[in-house]
Amino acid sequence: MLSFIWGLFLLLNSATIGCAERVELFWDICRLNISRDGYSTWKSMCVNNAVPIPPVHVTQGDVLVLNVRNSLDVPTAVHAHGIYHNYTDYYDGAEMVTECGIPQGENFTYIIDTTNQVGDLWIHGHAHSQLTDGFRTPFIIHEKIKPSTYDEEKLLYFEDWNERAFKDMVAIDAKLKLADFPPSYRTMLINGVNANTSKSLHFEPRKRYRLRIMSLSTSSWIKFRMPGHTMHVISKDGVEAVPMEVDGLDLGPGQRVSIIVTAHDTTEFNYMYNVTLYANFIPLYPGLMPRHYSGLIEYQKNAPLANIPAVDDAQLVWNDVINMQARDRMPLLPVDRQIVLSIKQFTPEHGIPYYSFGDYAFNHSLVPILFTALSMGELASNSSVYGPQAQAHILQYGESIELLVYNDNSKDHSLHLHRGEYQVVEVGPYGDAVANNHTAVEFQKSGPSPMRCDVVTVRAYSYIKLRFHVNRGMVALFHCHMMHGGYFGLAATFIAAPELLQKHVKVPEEVIRMCKLRGIKTSGNAAGNEGFDMTGLPTPFLVNRE
Which of 69, 224, 466, 512 has the fewest CB atoms within 10 Å, i.e. the most exposed one? Predict the structure, then answer.
């Protein structure tokens, strides 16, 4: 009876999507035993007992009402990646950071306001590695008035796909007790299906197309090219850019761009687009790493393929964010304070590599960080009340922060800031890349209007400088979007203007109810106690800093 009621709810609300300011969806979060890549079969994440999860499209100003039922055997949480959440932090979807998660068998509604945003976002799970297992889909916020700079738009999103569920991969890693994760040669999905069976891109002569290109991968990077066509990048992570001509796109986990491509004048030839799946920490193996895929750009059925000479990647121009400029020409921010974060990796005796930005690997508190910020009064401005495992940094309203991130590590990392974006202002070498068989990163500074984004790659043996302005109170997670990094400790939290959070945030009773159902406290310090008493807080994992 319950499934019938929810099905009727979905049917009635589906007719309102796209034509109303209130867009309602129902998602029944589930798992489905299926082979999505044509090679491996295991229980993929699903919504409404189906895969892939349909992309979500709204128009700027719409309120997305996402009704979620958790039909899993563990809690879940849903993160609208890229949404600002102006004093609605409790809808950010970061389990045990801004909420308690949705218990198994329960329903919860996320309310997502799109008033101040447009562009290429995505929605994904933010609990129990569910993102890696397929809980992810594009979330597009369209402009109220369609821009005149293109005739039609198309969506291409790419996912890496593992040979088994993430928890099973971790169990194998722990059993082997290796100093690092063993190679996992992932396959690719294009628009949610096996990349080898994906549909063609249909082009009409002389049309200008906006292609929304999204990497929803969790541990691999994506290179995308359209030989024979000219690409202009016009946005990055939903932020509009001064158009930049490129030969190819290089996207880390979670990164999105929009490009403009003008079709050829005739239908004489068809073309191919090329996609490469790679990761610098997985050993090269012919046919497996990197993996190469291609798709048809079809002007006319059965037309011959154009003969485009191959070009080495090193000779091409890529979408390096440090060379991009924001279209709104926002100037380079001044620096009021610099926060230094250093990526480290350590493998303890049990064989699972841990990462950190500080002395301790990030881990969950016993009280969600947002609730500690709301309940601790003046002490909320003292980072100690959040515990060492939160890697908490207190930010003051109105200050401009520079993050200096060092990566003396053999892996590239894709770093995501919740609830906003940062300017990318400088990159350069750090550590001895050459001695560790890596190419040294070239020193570069941004132009006068640095590009802003919410995910950026920091390459192995390099550093990066990022700047952002604190314009409101918030609790924002900063973490690696590569699953092995984020899941095993590479995260920090920014608690901005806690006094403003306490003044403006009113947590809905339904959010509190989810916590009560899970037996999680909604006040107190990280341990759920008063003051600095951390009795009961699990001992955080100390990363070897030698």
Answer: 512
Q: What is the pTM of this model?
A: 0.93
Token reading at 121: 């976002």
d(CA 62, CA 6): 23
DSSP-assigned letter for residue 27: E
Query: CB-based contacts of 134: which residues, under 8 Å, 6+ apart?
Result: 36, 44, 45, 46, 51, 52, 53, 159, 161
Pairing label, strands 107-113, 63-70: antiparallel
Interval 476-496: pLDDT, tens: 999 999 887 878 899 999 999
Measured in whole angstroms, how far is the alpha carbon of residue 460 from the centre of its chain?
Answer: 19
Question: Is the peptide bond preceding residue 243 cis, with omega within 30 degrees of 0?
Answer: no
* CA separation for the pair 499, 52 (Å, rounded): 42
The model's pLDDT over 385-394, given as tens digits with 9 standing for 90+, comes to: 999 999 999 9
What are the backbone angles phi and psi of residue 282, rounded to the nearest 5°? Answer: -105, 130
Q: Is 61 exposed, middle or buried (0-12, 13-18, 19+ CB in 10 A)?
A: middle
Residue 65: beta bridge partners?
Answer: 24, 111
How many residues belong to the chain? 546
- In this prediction, residue 524 has a pLDDT band, given cuts at 50, 70 and 90, of very high
Cα angle, residue 202 at apex, residues 199 and 207 outer, rounded to 5°: 155
Q: In whole numbers, what is the pLDDT of the chain averaged over residues?
A: 92
CB 540 within 8 A of CB 527: no
Query: CA nearest 456: which of 489, 487, 422?
Result: 422
